[in-house]
Amino acid sequence: MSTEEKSAAPRSLAEALRVRDDVSLAALLRSRPDLVTPVPTDLTQLATRAGTRASVVRALERLDRFALQTAQALAVAADPAPYEELLGLMAGDEGDPAVTAALPRAVALLREQALVWGADDRLRLVRTARELLAPSPQHPSPTGLGPTVREATAGMSPGRIQEILAAVGLASTHDSVSAVSALGELFADRTRTAALLAALPGESREVLDRLVWGPPYGQVTHDPAPHLRALLDRGLLLPTAPGTVVLPREVALHLRAGRAHRTPEPVPPPVEAAATHRPQVVDATAAGQALAALATVEELLKEWDEGGPAVLRAGGLSVRDLKRTAVALDVPEPVAAFWVELAHAAGLVASDGEADERYAATPAYDEWRELPPAERWARLAESWLTATRTSGLVGGRDAKDRTLSALGPNLDRSAAPEVRHRVLALLAGLPEGAAPDAESVLGRLRWERPLRGPQREQGEQREDDLRSRLARWTLAEAELLGVTGRGALAAPGRALIGAPEPAHPAAQPEPVGPGDKLPVHHHRTPLAPAPVTPAERGAATAAAARLLAPLFPEPLDHVLLQADLTAVAPGPLERELADVLGVLADVESKGGATVYRFTPGSVRRALDAGRTAADLHAFLSRHSRTPVPQPLTYLIDDVARRHGRLRVGAASAYVRCDDDATLDEILADKRAAGLGLRRLAPTVLAAQADPAALLDGLRAMGFAPAAESAAGDVLIARADARRTPPRAAPEPVPDGPPVPDDTLLTAAIRAIRAGDLASTAPRKPGHADGADGGQAVGGELPRTSAAETLATVQAAVLTGEALWIGYVNAEGAASQRVIAPIRVEGGFVTAYDHTADEVRTYPLHRITGVAELADDAP
Length: 858
What we know:
This protein is an alpha+beta fold. Among the domains are: 149-255, no CATH class; 278-440 and 457-502, no CATH class; 560-626, no CATH class; 647-707; 761-852, SH3 type barrels, CATH 2.30.30. It is built from 34 helices and 25 strands. The protein has a 5-stranded mixed β-sheet, with helices on one face. The chain has a 5-stranded antiparallel β-sheet with strand order 24-23-22-21-25. A hairpin with a 2-residue loop joins strand 4 and strand 5 (244-246). The model is unreliable at 1-7, 453-464, 504-531 and 766-778 (pLDDT under 50). This is DNA-binding protein.
């Protein structure tokens, strides 16, 4: 490419991309990852893909409010528009200093994302974006501006246009084109338009004031009032359809003092602090919440240890089972749904996949329980941060008016991880210990992502409404999980998102001029979470666990026994102590200290699990800092003395007891009538009920029977923990293609450059030109005969020149390549392929044709 061609202004987006360096192309592909999936063959295809409707819509949706306002202003500006015109539309006639300072960065961002191309004197918004943002009666512009005078008068009769010229004091013309141009120039002249408006009655000015900020369309009757007739006669309102008029864009801009937007927003709204706490208090509160979170998840899985609730036919938990879970955890149903979904996201619970399908803990739960507490919490927090399943939707309705159930389908929202990460990042930007004002957080998120299409998610009215609710849920869930404490981000939560330690506010970045390139580190939109590798994510999780570990109290190996048959655990207990105590006593209350209560039923539960009275006495003596109360000793001995005196087995069932008086007492009890008991021997009763029902019935009568095996041994009533087969945690649903890493970007740019070289390199004219076997025109493959192909390739081996070839692979896919032949033998040519940047071998019969490159080819 010659120096003159390089310096010439680009005539298309493809040419604008062609003059970019690799760093700029990498920034484009990183900010719009859909462009690299799959890798384009050349820069022309990249430009075409960047202009498709789906890709442009996605790019516009990821702009912040000011960048979007800039694009909207370009949509109503001339095409192309000089930078000064855009600045006037954004800053107005007075010139807003904040807008003036921020506009170069917004233009640079639009250029980087290939939404705007061209030099500062010829800025062009890509055609698809202009079509999406330009005003029309069906889709009014977000700026509130209507069509230009030229567009509004397109269907007007020439005579009517000449009448308008006469009414505003302009000379008549010989054609409508010049008449419309004269009228447009009049309205664009501030002085002349001000004089024209000053002559109008006050009622006419009121009509213009109602239309000036949009919508610009209004309704008129067949016989309009005089103040409306004055506007119509002067072209200040132009008819667009019967009974409909529009305020021309030039007039509206005059009334707006040149501004396209009523309120430009060049600076993001600040996130304000609602309260401030000492960082130590925040970290301690978060650590307490983290401990409670671990206890809640363990309690949930303990409830489902022997098999949890059944899976609905459509998937998920029933409303009744969710209520039962909420009662068992002593939390509201939405909070219970959060804990259930969190355990599922962490891979700790899943369906067992059996015929009678139920939820149960996974083998990963046993591995998770063996981890140190801080690492267990970090695993939960990471799963929550990256999960796309959204528990806040439970109980709502989907697009088909079906109830959304916990663990059920249709709970994935791809925006959830992004919003969670951004909310925590905004909290990390506040001073240490500062809890944010929720409304200011929502306002900041709306500025960073203002444009979201309606009904982007099934069952949701608006995507921006969903994102606001996601942000509110994030604040509440982060507090439940212990990522925040008293609303402020704790140190482990800061490490979890990879945020730097708090420091003094950084200096403002250097201003960017209108022609400057956006710095590389600005390639991400503000809301997008920083892409991290699994290694980086693991390092962040490990750092969070390290910061949390010192905040956790050391597990206790003792409890405080009290005379009212309760035990107080003043902190978290060692696992073995907690497991045994959970069987021996019932949890009465939770909090900073857990209170356990001993009852005859709980003691019998421990005896059914294989413990003896001596074991229980020794256990309590070993782990109590206070003397074992006498009432508790009596309770254990009394229950143990009666436990097992009755033996129940399968006859269909029988009762065996060495004390025949006890059996007489049972037979005489009216409550035993339903068990179908009859005496077989002085010490044996037979029953029609099954063993389990017989055990429950006798216990309800106040006895303490024990089950026995066919050999007469006591059965230990400790069910084996039910586990599902190995299950993987649910995969998050991505919000579009993933951001490419540096390795992929390097390879993609190299392939695009090589493909562009193959498609644009100049060819020598000669025998390869012509309709029969000539050089390709318009991107077609070159065509030469087999003899010509072989001769040209052999000559290139001797001269070392590069060739342009057309090639069809074994699958029938055609491509163009630039190769430097090395040798030709056996029907194959071995050459260095500039397109693939490697040496390859090609069958000669698959080469459609060859052409020599021009001498000035790169």
